[in-house]
Amino acid sequence: MSQTASDPLEFVRERGLGALAEKMGIQFTEFSVDRAVATMPVEGNTQPAMLLHGGAYVVLGESLGSMSANLFAGEGRLAVGIDINATHTRSATSGIVTGVCTPIHLGRSLTVHQIEVSDEQGRRCSTVRITNMIKDRPAS
User: Fold this and answer.
1) I need a surface site. Which of 1, 53, 134, 139 has the fewest CB within 10 A?
2) Are strands 36-41 and 96-106 parallel, antiparallel or unpaired?
3) Model's pTM, two decimal places?
4) Which residue of the set 43, 62, 75, 120 is catalytic?
5) What is the residue extent of each domain of the chain?
6) Which CATH class is domain 9-136?
């Protein structure tokens, strides 16, 4: 099934988050097939009204869901996003937001993850759902 390591965050460090997630200040704090958690600052990721940009919630969600799907996919396999949606229910204006990713479906060829993004007071700001297709990693 998935890769295992004594330090689950090692997978994240080895693979990297990608330039966009790094620019947005996303930091993983917990990582396993069953649950992944990451934070992101509001500052620097706002829209003109100084609210956290809706796309920032989606980037956080996709970072969590795709990394989780790739951990589940295992060696020699690759998970790629094929669908993502988000429902924003509150606006974050300062501090950090935290995304908690849990699997809804872990299958042979598809995974579905839900990411709940909350502000520092624990209030849900956005719910993101991502579907990833799992395929064999192309030969180098």
Assistant:
1) 139
2) antiparallel
3) 0.92
4) 62
5) 9-136
6) alpha beta
